[in-house]
Write a structure and sequence with these properties.
Helices cover 36% and strands 19% of the residues. It has eleven helices and twelve strands. The strands form two sheets. A seven-stranded mixed β-sheet has the order 2-1-3-4-6-5-10, with helices on both faces. The protein has a five-stranded mixed β-sheet with strand order 7-9-8-11-12, with helices on both faces. It is globular, with a radius of gyration of 21 Å.
Length: 332
């Protein structure tokens, strides 16, 4: 008999919690674009008047959602993440955000979750795309407990919102109700010398990097899980970072415009001066097969590669001492 423990994914934890809310609020509507999920079956079976699927028609999905929202409904759209961000950008911009409608866009497949599907299904530019939209709030949870909490948080908020879920079943980082997820971030591992700010699945990798760096250098490096990308809780973030010497950001996303860019912009705008290293995908499309971990290893985003990169950077910044150069002596 198999002893493998099945981990319920972020999406299903979220929709199970949302279902309990929807049973009490008949104005909560879920609109899906050709995407199903075991946790959505209960909507279609038990709340059939609160669930609509439009087929492969994401722009139609958002148009319908906006119409429902203008009639007083609380609407959740659901599709693969690039299709609720890139494919319907104009609808998100004009129909949702410009009208400030209470629609929550749910995207499944953050980062390289759909690893073998190539650039059409990779979601490594969604933060950049959605971050520029006025009024849009963005969430990027790292575990199922956070995703579950976001059901109530998103329901209580009348803003346009985007939540990106990982496709994989990922181990929980939190106990239920042990963190105030309304704060948008949490220091999972306190650090005396520096911090890694991570989001999504890379929060798990960041914990490995912090441990590795401590073993290699003795530095006490903390990890911050940034699960609300916009707006960033700058007061709490700066309070955590202030006593330390450096910051690294870590994301499964293009560096251009991603979470690391948001942190760099915040540092510049607030004159918060700390050495900052950004880790993410460089400026390229990825066509490699072999799975997510293969992509990470090839492009230097796995924990082992990032540990070496951070270690070298710390030496370059003179935050740790580099070994003295070896002097070659020659006989005269």
């Amino acid at each position: 008999m198999s002893t493998t423990k099945y981990i319920l994914g972020m999406r299903d934890r979220f929709f199970e919690a949302l279902f309990e809310i929807a049973k009490k609020d008949k104005d909560l509507i879920v609109v899906s674009a050709d995407n199903g999920a075991p946790s959505l079956d209960q909507f279609s079976f038990d709340l059939e008047n609160q669930f609509v699927t439009v087929g492969i028609a994401e722009q139609q999905m958002q148009g319908m959602a906006c119409g429902l929202a203008t009639e007083g409904k609380k609407v959740y759209t659901y599709a693969i993440a690039p299709f609720v961000t890139a494919r319907i950008f104009e609808q998100n911009k004009i129909a949702q955000c410009a009208m400030n409608l209470p629609i929550v866009n749910i995207g499944i497949g953050a980062g390289y979750s759909y690893s073998v599907m190539g650039p059409s299904h990779h979601t490594v530019e969604d933060l950049t795309i959605m971050r520029v939209l006025p009024q849009m709030k963005i969430y990027s949870p790292a575990d199922g407990v956070t995703a579950q909490a976001l059901a109530q948080i998103s329901y209580d908020d009348a803003s346009p919102q985007y939540i990106r879920f990982d496709r994989a079943g990922i181990a929980d980082l939190y106990l239920e109700n042990d963190v105030d997820f309304n704060e948008g971030l949490h220091a999972l591992r306190p650090g005396r010398d520096g911090y890694i700010i991570a989001t999504g699945i890379m929060t798990h990798e960041a914990l490995k990097v912090a441990k590795n760096i401590n073993t290699k250098t003795g530095l006490d490096v903390g990890v911050i899980d940034l699960f609300r990308i916009k707006p960033i809780n700058k007061e709490k973030l700066f309070q955590i970072l202030q006593p330390t010497s450096f910051v690294m950001t870590y994301e499964e996303h293009l560096l251009n415009g991603g979470m690391g860019s948001a942190i760099a912009e915040l540092f510049a705008d607030e004159s918060f001066f700390k050495p900052l290293l950004r880790i993410g995908q460089d400026d390229r499309f990825v066509y490699d097969n072999g799975g997510r971990e293969v992509i990470w290893q090839k492009y230097g985003m796995d924990a082992a590669s990032v540990t070496e990169r951070l270690h070298q950077w710390l030496k370059e910044q003179r935050l740790i001492s580099a070994p003295a150069p070896v002097v070659q002596r020659t006989s005269s």
